[in-house]
Amino acid sequence: MDWQVFWVTFSTVFLAEMGDKTQLAALTLTAEKGTPLAVLTGACSALFLATLLGVLLGGILAQYIPPMVIRKAAGLAFVVIGGLILLGKW
Asked: One digit per residue, pLDDT tens: the chain, 90 residues?
């Protein structure tokens, strides 16, 4: 395993997830339902599956599309989605 890639990925995802809607949803569900283990298990499973799909799709795309094009497309998608959110259309 490439530990440098591991720690860069861990740090990036950890910082990106702090205070986001996923964390707030988990906090709210735990407070409402009073079952922290069930919420933890559900949230971890969902994040694992979403990440797995991203890694698999990224691996497939990387075979056919240059990484720079993928990065630019992802950046553009973030900008477009952010604009739609600001306009209340997402």
From this structure: 999 999 999 999 888 888 888 889 999 999 999 999 999 999 999 999 999 999 999 899 999 999 899 999 999 999 999 999 899 887
In angstroms, how far is the first alpha carbon of the chain from the final one?
38
Please state, in angstroms and rounded to a whole number, the distance separating the CA atoms of residues 1 and 15. Answer: 22
* Residues in contact with 90: Cβ distance below 8 Å, sequence separation at least 6, in sequence order: 81, 84
Q: How many CB atoms lie within 10 A of CB 70?
A: 15
Angle at 84 between CA 16 and CA 82, to 5 degrees: 25
The 10 Å Cβ neighbour count of residue 39 is 19
By C-alpha distance, which of 23, 26, 5, 3 is closest to 15? 23
